[in-house]
Specification:
The chain has 492 residues and is mostly helical. It is 73% helix and 2% strand. The protein has 18 helices and 4 strands.
Length: 492
C-alpha cells in the first residue's frame, strides 16, 4: 500500500493516470475541456441512475405482488430484507470495484465494464423466473460496484480540488432528473402493463448511457485510462485466487437458496453482518498499514459511521414507504389509481428544488451531518403519526410528501458533503477506495434498516417509525456534541 501522507484538500491531486496535477486556485473558472468532460460523466450517470432508480421503484412491489398478478408473492419482511441487502451490496461492491479501478483496469474501463454488467442484469430480470431474479440482481450489483466509485473519482479529477464539493453538488442535483423520471416510466410499465417490461426499460436506459460514454471518451484527455498503481505479478496471483474463492462461495450460497437448503433470511442476515463489519475492519487495517494520520482517520470513521443512521432512514423509501403507499394511502384521482411507485419521484423532485439552496450552504462538515440526521429523524416521526392515523383507514399522500421533503433536505446536504469528505481524506492512490468507503457506510445503514424492519412482526408500525426516527435524532445530537473534537481533524 502506498505510504503517502499528502493532504488531499491542500496538496496536489492525482489523475486517473497516476499523474499529479496542482489544484486550481479558488475561483478559477472551469476550462472548456473540463466542462465537456464533466458533461460526459454526467450523461452516463444520468442513464445509470435512470436504470437504478427505475428498478428500485418497482422491485419490492414486484417481490410482494401475488403470483396471480405476475409477482413472486414474498412476505413483506422477506422482501424488504432482500431489497435492503441488494441496496447495501450495491454500495459494498464499490470497495472491490474501486480497488479494480485503482490497481487493475483504470476508471474508464471500470465504467464501461460495469455499465455492460448493469444492462445485462436488468435484461435478465425481465425474465420471469426465480433464478433470473438472483442472477440479475448479482449482475447489477457487480456493475454498480465498478461504475459508481470510478465515476465519482473521474468527477473529482476533472473538477479540480478547489471546485470538488461544488462539482459533486451539481452532479448530485443533475442526476435527480433520472431519479424523477425513472419511476414514472418503469412504474407505469410494471404496474399497468407487466412487471418485466419495467425491468427491460431499465436495461434500455443503461445501454443508452454506455453508448453516450463511449462517444464522449475523447474529451476526457486520458483521465482514468490506466490504474494509479498497477498490481505486481504476485499481487495479481493472490487477487485471482481470492476472487475465485469469493465467486465460488457466492455461487454455492445462491444455489443453496434456490434448492431450499439455506433459508433466504439466514443468508441475508449473514450478508448484513458482513456489510456492517467490513468498512470498520478495512479502516482499522489501513490505520495499521499506512502512515495516514490516525486522528484524521478516526474522525473520518466517526462521522461516516454516524451517517449510516441517515441512510438507514433514506433507504427505506423504496421498500417500507413503497409498501405504505401501496396499502395505506389514497391514490385515486378522477378514477385513475396512481401507481405506488410514482411516489418515488416526489423525492428527486424535492432534491432538484432544494439543491440550489443547499449548494449555497457554508458551514462545517459536522454541522452538515448533524443537520441531515436531524431532518431524517423528524421525517420518521412524521411517518409514526401517519401510521397511527392509518389504523382507522387510508391516509392522504400528503403525509408521505412531507416525509420526502424532510429527508430530501437532509440528503442534499449530506450526500455531496460525504463524497467531498471522502475525496479530501483519501491518501494518494486511494481515491476510488475512499469514495467507495463513503458508499459502504451508506450500505451499513441500508442493511440495518432492512433487517430492523423485521421488528414490525412484533412492533406496531407507529412504534417502529418512532424507534427509527429517535435513533437518527440521537445520532445527530451525538455528532453535534462531538463537533469541537472532530472538526480539527476534518477538512471543512
Amino acid at each position: 500500500m502506498p505510504q503517502h501522507t499528502e493532504d488531499a484538500m491542500t496538496g496536489p491531486s492525482r489523475t486517473g493516470n497516476g499523474l499529479y496535477v496542482p489544484p486550481a486556485p479558488p475561483g478559477t473558472p472551469a476550462q472548456p475541456g473540463t466542462r465537456r468532460g464533466f458533461l460526459t460523466l454526467l450523461g452516463v450517470d444520468l442513464w445509470e441512475r435512470f436504470s437504478f432508480f427505475g428498478m428500485a421503484a418497482i422491485l419490492v412491489l414486484y417481490l410482494t405482488a401475488a403470483p396471480a398478478d405476475g409477482g413472486l408473492g414474498m412476505p413483506q419482511q422477506t422482501a424488504t430484507a432482500l431489497f435492503a441487502t441488494y441496496m447495501s451490496l450495491n454500495f459494498l461492491a464499490g470497495l472491490p470495484g474501486g480497488w479494480l479501478a485503482d490497481r487493475v483496469i483504470g476508471a474508464r474501463r471500470a465504467v464501461l465494464t460495469g455499465g455492460t454488467l448493469i444492462a445485462c442484469g436488468h435484461a435478465v430480470l425481465a425474465l420471469a423466473t426465480a433464478p433470473a431474479l438472483y442472477t440479475g440482481l448479482a449482475l447489477v450489483v457487480a456493475g454498480t460496484g465498478l461504475v459508481k466509485p470510478s465515476l465519482a473519482a473521474m468527477v473529482s479529477v476533472v473538477s479540480g480540488t478547489a471546485r470538488r464539493e461544488q462539482a459533486f453538488s451539481r452532479f448530485y442535483m443533475c442526476i435527480q432528473v433520472s431519479a424523477l423520471l425513472a419511476p414514472l416510466v418503469t412504474g407505469f410499465l410494471a404496474e399497468k402493463v407487466t412487471w418485466h417490461l419495467g425491468f427491460a426499460a431499465a436495461a434500455f436506459g443503461m445501454t443508452v448511457g454506455l453508448a453516450q460514454f463511449r462517444i464522449g471518451l475523447r474529451v476526457l484527455d486520458g483521465t482514468g485510462s490506466a490504474p494509479t498503481r498497477p498490481l505486481t505479478r504476485a499481487e495479481a496471483r493472490t487477487a485471482a485466487r481470492r476472487t475465485a474463492a469469493l465467486l465460488a462461495a457466492g455461487a454455492a450460497a445462491t444455489t443453496a437458496v434456490l434448492l431450499g437448503a439455506l433459508p433466504l433470511l439466514a443468508l441475508l442476515a449473514l450478508l448484513g453482518l458482513a456489510t456492517v463489519c467490513l468498512p470498520f475492519a478495512y479502516l482499522r487495517s489501513l490505520g495499521r498499514r499506512s502512515t495516514v494520520e490516525r486522528a484524521r482517520l478516526t474522525a473520518f470513521t466517526t462521522v461516516m459511521a454516524a451517517s449510516a443512521a441517515f441512510w438507514m432512514i433514506f433507504a427505506q423509501s423504496g421498500s417500507v414507504l413503497s409498501l405504505f403507499a401501496a396499502h395505506h394511502t389514497h391514490r385515486d384521482i378522477l378514477g385513475f389509481t396512481i401507481p405506488a411507485s410514482w411516489l418515488q419521484s416526489v423525492h428527486p423532485l424535492f432534491i432538484l428544488l432544494l439543491a440550489p439552496l443547499a449548494g449555497r450552504l457554508r458551514t462545517t462538515t459536522t454541522a452538515k451531518f448533524a443537520g441531515a440526521l436531524a431532518a431524517a429523524g423528524l421525517s420518521f416521526l412524521v411517518m409514526a403519526a401517519a401510521a397511527l392515523l392509518a389504523r382507522t383507514g387510508d391516509v392522504s399522500v400528503a403525509w408521505l410528501i412531507a416525509v420526502y421533503l424532510l429527508y430530501s433536505l437532509g440528503e442534499v446536504v449530506l450526500a455531496p458533503a460525504g463524497l467531498a469528505l471522502a475525496a479530501a481524506v483519501a491518501p494518494p492512490g486511494y481515491l476510488n477506495r475512499f469514495l467507495a468507503l463513503n458508499g459502504m457506510f451508506a450500505a451499513v445503514g441500508v442493511v440495518l434498516g432492512g433487517q430492523l424492519y423485521r421488528l414490525t412482526a412484533v412492533l406496531p408500525l407507529p412504534a417502529y417509525f418512532l424507534l427509527m426516527g429517535s435513533t437518527a435524532l440521537a445520532t445527530g445530537a451525538f455528532v453535534a456534541a462531538r463537533s469541537s473534537r472532530l472538526r480539527p481533524h476534518l477538512p471543512d
